[in-house]
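Study this pair:
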Amino acid sequence: MIGRMTGAAARGLFVALLVLLPALLLPGVAADSTQISVLVALLAAFLTFVEYNSNFPSIVEFRDAPPFNRLRFVSLFATVLLLSLILRGATEPTLLTGALTSLGTIIGNAVDFPYSPVRLVVLMLHETASPELVATVRTSAGLAYLISLVAMTAFLILVRLMNWPARQGIFNVWVNLPLFDPTVGGDVVYRLQRDARVNIALGFLLPFIIPALVKAAADLIDPITLENPQTLIWTLSAWAFLPASMIMRGLAMGKVADMIEDKRRRAYADADTPFQPA
């Protein structure tokens, strides 16, 4: 019990730190913005503590199948941290911020080709956006997209080469998929495979769809402005993290479906094996 509570508290602190990173690193943040960040951080930390301190799962998937959630958190934390440092370097440059900006510029220019996700994000900006803002968005988007690709590749290696999550021992579907009801309609394997395909397809399409939808809706509602550093950080972090998270979820559900199907196959084979007397 004490170990579970300690782990839940540590996770809550890390989540709170993630929410507070832009407010802590960016210079000249308004007091109202800082207060809102602190309030959101406290709420996120409390919800995380309650979720991981409970014996019964509620919404967090693959809670007992590390390092799925750890890998997602590390990728989001790295994205927010690096983007915050890059934007901090615009007013308070250091060797670290300069190196990150140079790296992000190289990556952003390399992936900024026609119809690429980064190009669509740049085109999402208003026509009157300054060249400095365009360069910052391209640099940040390129770096955020690279981090998401690295996270997906790492998880794919865990699934395909390191046999996640079977290497952890017994996999409890109810604990790790609390929102999935295996008793509702249809075969469990078919539903898991279908959800896996849907998640992977949406994950691949979202980096292209989100900028297009924002651009199309700009004439009807006030478009998202990325001139505010915190807005830029969280918008690009979500743009890169959500599709990667959906693809990882799809890979995980597909792996669970394969495990259930393999277990069924072995059970049927054992049932068909004739009894051999000693």
Q: What stands out?
A: The radius of gyration is 22 Å. The chain has a mean pLDDT of 87. Residues 229-272 form the longest helix (44 residues). Residues 63-268 form one domain.
